[in-house]
Amino acid sequence: MTSSSKVEGLSITPASVEGAPRSSPLLCSLRTLLVDAALITGALFFAVLMRFDGVLPAEGREDFPRALALLLAVRLVALVWLGLHRWSFRRSGLNEAVRLVMANVAASIVFEFLRLVFFARAVPGQVVALEFFATTTLLGIHRFAPRMARQWYLEQRRSRADGALRTLIVGAGSAGDLLLRDLMRGSGSPWHVIGLVDDDPGKQGTFLNGKPVLGVIDALPELMTKHRVTQVLIAIPRLSPERTRHILSLCRHQSVSFKIIPASFAYLDEKISAAMLHDLSPEHLLPRDAIAFDHQEVHRLVSGRRILVTGGAGSIGSEITRQVAGHAPASLVVVDINENELYLLVRQLQARYPGLPVSSVVADIRDLDRMLRIGQEFRPQYVFHAAAHKHVPLMEDSPEEAIKNNVFGTQNVARMADTCGAERFILISTDKAVMPSSVMGASKRLAEMVIRNIAVTSRTTFCAVRFGNVLGSAGSVVPLFKQQIQAGGPVTVTHPDCTRYFMIIPEAVGLVVMAGLGGYGELCILDMGAPVRIAELAANMITMTGLVPDKDISIVYTGLRPGEKLEETLMSDEEELTQQVRNRIKVARSPAPPRDFDLQLLRLDRAARAGDVQAVKLTLQDLIPSYTPSKPRNVLVPGSAPLMDGVNPQGAGGPRTPPLPLGAEQTASA
User: Fold this and answer.
1) 230 by DSSP, 3-state: which?
2) What is the largest CA-CA distance in the chain?
């Protein structure tokens, strides 16, 4: 016995499920036309009986069969002519409904003309009008009722299924319409759509595919509470970061998760589907527009050139190698002291670009002789110098290492570029080099001065590219916050007013390549957009995971650590902004190094080699007047968590700063 399941009159049998035997298209078309013929016949009988109060006049009975035959012929020909005999009971929509009405109108016009010629008295005009409305209604029910019944059944099954996500869609435009259609078609969709929200006043109170537009975006908190919503789908592909952050702030006290249609799918006008939904990420929150690159211009700059990248296994360095490798350089040399990450990176490059000569070199940039040998062996034309110590608090504890690596390591690589006749040298700098309060920032500022000093007598073109933090780099706040959220918190932030500039790694590196190889000037500054409050970023990241800040996951303010500032700047007062050379790239002119620069470097070198921390900082102050060494301190704000045992920066009687994981609330720019 064949089993079937019935849901309030709707029979779902095995013959109707996926994979069951299907009838041939010809047989399906004939079956559809036979049902249409029966419905048209019934519509004519209905019209005649309505016109004559249930009794057909004697003078019309003789002509009625001929009128019926003629009507059937005309209507069926019209249906076949517009292809309505080949009907998809699952995919039909507005276009098919319009074609059905057009077929009925055309058939009624033809039938009216024939009626006037052959049996005007037997079939009155009122019968033709009544028959048109009855036929259109019955054929519409015949064709659309199965789809509506199936959608109703799937909706009921979704709403009653275990783990069903009660969902609101943000955006009732074309993307929201297409997304809703796809969600309602899919039998395995986990989303039970309650309705939509949109700020367009004309859409308020309307329905989209049977789902109501419940209100404006600002009504999200009330709607989510009222309808017990657990999922928000953002169907506005080009939603601005400001609006995205606004939506998150509205939902901050609701336990809901988020997905979004990325902007990269905005051009797919009629192909939006649930498969395109991505988790909302910190990249969607950056307060600036995405950057479009001219890949042909990059290809012209890179193609056929010998390129060397130091620090190639790091976050910025590895992205530089990936981007330049895609533009057919003559050779690519990747230098790093981290042999494990270097090995993995080079394998990836060789697998992706099998014809590209890629060399991996394990080397320490602090070894001048080693750098010179590398330069003589590979003769690079372009040198990207991304190797550096970047962690601010660690460099405060070991300032001599920051000097050895960031200052004299840079000097060694720059000398290598000069000696081997490289055309361009690009230093990856940081916003922490501006009016530095940390040894790391001061060392990077000094590195900028070092390459400028060498450039005076060198044929190599030297350029420093300065920018802020990058999302997702090693030691940055984003992966740290993710780890802390996954562990159940707390999320640690130094200060509620702390701000940083952010950019995603591919965009930052793309601008570095354009700025460094474009020959614009000795110091290029990337436009990072508006700064981001770290506390707001932490709260938004908690909200994006479906948790409530300070309820499910607490935010703990730990106080600024040595070397950290509340906010960073990209240019100091003493630097003159000369021009914006292109989108997102500005050129600045900084003061020349002091006349006794070389002697001061020797003094700094001796202090670093001797491990004399005080002498290192005093020399940095002499070289960089804007450098203000930070004193060990602990700035806690009201409402922060109790202090834990840890490093005591103020002596035995001072407050203790809780130890943080490496990279907490700090991202270097290189």
Assistant:
1) coil
2) 123
Which residues lie below 8 Å from residue 111, measured CB to CB, with a gap of 6+?
70, 71, 74, 75, 128
Q: Which of 193, 231, 230, 241 is nearest to 214 (CA)?
A: 193
**Six token digits for residue 235:** 């169907």
Task: Give the Cβ contact number of residue 164 at 10 Å.
Answer: 16
CA–CA separation, 265 and 251 (whole Å): 25
Q: Which helix (H) or strand (E) holds 429?
A: strand 424-430
Q: What predicted TM-score, i.e. pTM, was given to this entire model? A: 0.70
- Provide φ and ψ at 475, rounded to 5°: 85, 0
CA–CA distance, 220 with 222 (Å, rounded to integer)? 6
**Four-residue CA torsion sign, 353, 358, 362, 365:** negative
For the chain (length 670 residues), average pLDDT per consecutive 10?
38 39 68 84 82 65 76 86 75 75 86 77 76 86 79 66 78 86 71 89 87 92 91 86 90 89 61 75 75 80 95 93 94 95 95 94 96 97 95 92 96 97 95 91 95 94 90 76 90 90 85 87 85 89 89 90 80 65 78 88 95 93 88 46 32 34 35
Residue entry with tokens 């659309």: 144
C-alpha distances out from residue 298 to 295, 303, 312, 325, 382, Å: 5, 8, 19, 11, 13
CB 363 within 8 A of CB 335: yes
Is 591:399 a contact under the CB 8 Å cutoff?
A: no
